[in-house]
Amino acid sequence: MSDGSSKTLMVDGRQMVREVLDKLFEKTHCDQSIEWSLCEANPELQIERDLEDHELFVELLSDWIRHSENKIYFILRPQKYVMFTDPQLFFMWKKNKSGQTDVNKQTKDLLIKEHFRGTSVIVPNLEGKMYLKEDGKKVWKPQYFLLRASGLYYVPKGKTKSSSDLACFIRFEKVNVYTASNYREKFKAPTSFCFVLKHPCIQKDSPYIKFLCCEDEKSLLLWVTSIRIAKYGHVLHQNYQEAVKRASGFQSARNKAASLQTKADQPKDNTFVFNPCMGPSPPKSEVKFNLEEPPPDFIPPSPPVHASS
What we know:
This protein is an alpha+beta fold. The protein has a domain at 83-250: Pleckstrin-homology domain (PH domain)/Phosphotyrosine-binding domain (PTB) (PH-domain like, Roll).
């Protein structure tokens, strides 16, 4: 885990990385962001790779040697689906920085549609100088590389960038791309931004591993992500759509739960009991008194006196 803790899972041999992620979501109760990833780390070669959601998890582990010190990390990777959240970084990479940042959602959707929703995926038209490590030596030589859907090509010395002059450096069918760490110290690399292309069964240093070094972090992201696009194509887009669907479902459920909790926390309304036997209270009315003046004082007459006989 990214916090240093560990989890033990029972994984079926037919389960994909996506299904293992779902199990971890249940165990950790974390959000189901599309950035969560399972990362394979090989300390022997000082390399790591984010596993793709469609890959069979147990099959990947079967490539490890016995008593391997390799580890799987459950970690957030903002760059996991950056080719879909910010496609302009890869399909408009020749533009300046402002031209890449001032891109609206409509333009992004159009780039994804053009490059991923056709009959075949159109890979980024990426090219540039990288440093290639010589076999068995701590020597790095500059080489001009070009990315194509079938693999990585280079321009031989004295040749041009035309298709007829390009030489194939490596094809992607049977290799994975890994980022490397501390190669500046280990192999005297020109920069700290290195990556490796190798067959997954190669777990120790081998002449069949291709070591490459980029000028900066941006170039490293460009090359590694573009190679993933060339290697996985439509499947990568399907993985992204599944991840977005899963994250949206989780967010909807969380919003619904929060709404129900808010209603439960609200104070109850006052309850009035109506008794049909009790009519409504009569309205208060103003009572007027008619005060008349009392009659004037008078002395009543004396009673009559009768004469005696």
